[in-house]
Amino acid sequence: MKRLACWSALTLLIACGTPKSQQVRMDAKDRFDRANAQVVYDQAVQAFHAGQFETALSHADKAIARFPKEGSYQLLRGRILLEMKRVDLAQTSFREAVELAPTSAEPHYYMGIVLQRWHELDKAVDSYHRAAELDPSQLQYVAAECETLLFLGRLDDAQHRLDEVQRQFEFSPVLDHVRADLAGLRGQHGERDRWLQAARLRSDPSRSATLAEEIAMVRFERGDWNGCIQALDDEALTILKGRADLTRLRARCLLMLDRPREARDLMLSLRTEPDAAGRNATIVGLAALRLGDVNRMTEAGHVLTRAQPGRADGWMLLGVAAAHRGDLAEARRLLGEAASREPQRELPRQLLTGLDRPAEPMQGLARVGETR
Question: Which residue pairs from 55-59 have beta carbons closer than 8 angstroms and sit at least 24 positions apart in sequence?
Answer without folding.
Answer: 56/80, 57/81, 57/84
